[in-house]
Amino acid sequence: MKSILVLCAFIAVTCANNVQLSKMQKEKVQQFTVECMKQSGVKPEVLAEAKKQNFKDDEALKKFMLCFFQKTGIMNRDGRLDIDVALSKLPQGADKVGVKKALEECRMKKGRDAADTAFEVFKCYHRATPTHVVF
């Protein structure tokens, strides 16, 4: 349980660099994180490394990303990113113009399947913008 709480804190910090998530957004992040960890089998240490931009080529991490993106509604099961939904989920204080530009670039990333595409989009977005938020 402790590792799940640490992971939830990690996701909230990773996803809220320079912006403040609402209480409801934080609760959803925690809920989706727990659900997607169970579904994907990703290890907390793999997620912790992703926070540091050490993106391990880990199938469980890729499945976690797809699960999380699907639960937030920003990606469909085929790995297609919905920029409008992503922008609608940004917390106050986020640079919507910068985020939109990054998302438009990153949605062109394609992997060998939907989980791989989610991972490629995540890496691209993480590198393209300093504002890391939950969509």
Automatic annotation (TrEMBL):
Gene Ontology BP, a term: sensory perception of smell
Compartments, record wording: Secreted
InterPro entries on file: PBP/GOBP, PBP_GOBP_sf
Superkingdom of origin: Eukaryota
Keywords carried by this UniProt record: Secreted, Signal
Gene Ontology terms for molecular function: odorant binding
Main localization of the protein described in the UniProt heading: secreted
Protein's UniProt name: Odorant-binding protein OBP44
Organism the protein comes from: Lobesia botrana
